[in-house]
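User: Hello, can you help with two protein structures?

Assistant: Certainly.
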Amino acid sequence: MESLSLQEALEVLENNASFKPNVEILPLLEAQNRFLASTQICQKSLPSFNSAAMDGFAFNHTNKGELKIKETLFAGDKKEIILQNGECVKIMTGAKIPKGADSLTPFEEIEGGFSNKDSIFVKEEGKIWNNIRQEGEEITKGETLLKEGEELDENALMLLATQGISYVDVYEKLKIGVFASGDELKEPWETSSPHQIHNSNATMIISTLKSFHFSAHYGGILKDNKETIAKVLQSPYDIIITSGGASKGEADFMREILQNNATLLIPSLKIRPGKPIMVAKMQNKFIIALPGNPLAGAVLLRFLILPFLRKLSGARAHFLQSIPIKICEEFSLKNRMDAMLGIANHEGFKLTQKGKYGSSCTLPLHLSNALGIFSENFTLGKAGEEIQALPFKLIWGDKKCNFIN
């Protein structure tokens, strides 16, 4: 199979993300950052009654002149009061607006100040619903509160809490196994010889997944042995992510095993860095073989694999969303598709280290906070020109976004 373009690879993953997670019921505070397994309908309008938006006096907006203070109302009061013409109530923020009132004036705006405890003076008619939160002005009972597949962040959880919901059904988390590959690798806690390297890829993969609310189990370093790799690929995970072993080197057996035992969805990618990547479907699991070079693996994980994992997890918003930003430092690129690390701030976007780094580097990742994806036709970035960038703190949407410049 030939290498795929990035556009083709994104389409292939979108079309093959047919995995459907199981559903579990969790207490509200344990469901944070999970994806809703069913649409939630509003059971209680927000607000559920007309309420005071601030401290002041409530009255009918057609009244003016001297108004008698009939009662004082506090938040939580159950008093049922009906205002007559020429009457008002002293009311505190959050209290229920009495029948007959449809406007509110804060204390400090009362004509002549508020010194008389029995009445106030209103110079002119008020505005209807002024400083009053009307019943259902946010959302009305029976409307959709949250859609299936929405992520339960702190704001979504707050919405559910307003409905008196304490348990919610969500999709189970993906079971992800992470493995490194290569006889030259040593773990960070092991002593390495000059010809060996410490395994940083597993840390990068697991910590990146964790920062986007995925959990992963680390399975260790795979030796360059066909039988060992084949056995690991039978492990009971939904997703197996490996680093290294995706190229066509003499000791790389991953490609051979996947070609013979799985459906190869992405054989490699026409992009720099990151060409040696493979994504395959084996029985009921997906195998993702990232490049062994740290920078290449980290870049592909962010803009190609994380959206795929979100869709597999049941997320409605799984499409990457870019932000428009102006180039602040001119740069040139070769006639190919490039994923370039960048720094985005109030000045604009500029390439990290002027784009002078290799796919085996790690420091440029630490120095960056954004990515720019550039097509073969983009060879010159001029200062002041607007491009699309992907911040490291990825933004998600439920519609496709063309983030390729």
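That covers the first. Now for the second protein you mentioned:
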Amino acid sequence: MNDMHAVATDVATVKLLIDGEFVESSTAHWRDVVNPATQAVLARVPMATPAEIDAAVAAAQRAFKTWRKTPIGARARIFLKYQQLIREHMGELAAILTAEQGKTLPDAEGDVFRGLEVVEHAAAIGNLQLGELANNVAGGVDTYTLLQPLGVCAGITPFNFPAMIPLWMFPMAIATGNTFVLKPSEQDPLVTMRLCELALQAGIPKGVLNVVHGGETAVNAICDHPDIKAVSFVGSTKVGTHVYQRASLAGKRVQCMMGAKNHAVVLADANKEQTLNALAGAAFGAAGQRCMAASTAVLVGAANDWIADLVAKAKTLKVNAGTEAGTDVGPVISCAARERVEGLIASGVEQGATLELDGRAPAVPGYERGNFVGPTIFSGAAPGMRIYDEEIFGPVLVILRAETLDEAIELVNANPNGNGTAIFTQSGAAARRFQEDIDVGQVGINVPIPVPVPLFSFSGSRASKLGDLGPYGKQAVTFYTQTKTVTARWFDDDTLGHGVNTTISLK
């Protein structure tokens, strides 16, 4: 973490959003926002003080009193306006995102677009936040449910999708009648802040959406604050486990989507060219910095003969800055991330895997200081090797061998993570067996990254998830509301009473 005295004075400061105002932090501790392709300092982000975090929560608490009473149609219309504004500013948002995060401009637009889909879903809240009614469950008695907002909710988001994942969280929380405190990644908060500016422009009232910045101290403050009722987290397993335990102990609802090791199982009957393209795109796109990246291929039987073709496909990918036309693989987020990925590649060699393609230290003219790692492929990997057991979060594809589909399913199910998996085959019978027997929350059939559209919910499982309910979609409505059951009986003035009833019956 960089101190403010090490930062050039002419660099812009990232503001806090508290009670509808973008305010300068009074902190003494700042961090540089760095372009990962050039190391240029884009801005400095504050580590918010405890008082500033308290002020953000207090603003959200005050705003909840009126926002929760806002008609559902009025809430929906704000998000109709918001999706329009995001569309109008798509190019600008993608450019900001690429500068601070590194992914290619087309991929940055995809990042924004997948978040935009959730905003569109939030605009349909009138059809989603519906209770149930049972008429005349007993003599003159009706029972019905209300889905009511919780209060102040909070979100902690990662660096790899600085547009999409914040948009997974605050639109659904706010549309259901809650207020929100967002803590974006301190590594790339600029596009998130621009999205928040547009949200206010769309009509979100002051105090309904607030933003604080920081690291571990801010995360712990969110977990501990008595006025925050629910916390949504996406990030590493280590931090997510900490957030879940700490916030749960404080009595909050918590959902944590965490690390992954996503297996793509390839049968020999799969369409070869389509499968190779899918594997290369899903393993190396976004420089492998996706929790749903297909980072592990399980080649079954004769599909093991495809390794050379897969290496050839990976060699066609262009490593360059995300702003350069034709780039396929941009830089990883930081120097530390590059060093970690390179260290894991070295460990794979040391532990006996076969390095089929080494992407370390690629030549990228004009961007010699960038955090680049090129596509890297290992074969002969096995459980027990670090490159298999750990999430690399870089452009590294690890290949394992299986002789049968049953062996491949057993291998995938033995891995503790359960974010996503995929099978490539032209056999409907094999695909159906795979989807039934695999113990992973999100399954792709000839789809390498099976993240569902917002009509559904992100449904990672096992060690990749803590909490029962996933982000966005139907599950998010349940997560951000509490169900209140009402049992009612109305009497006409001339209705005769039935006397005193000392039993539990409603008759």
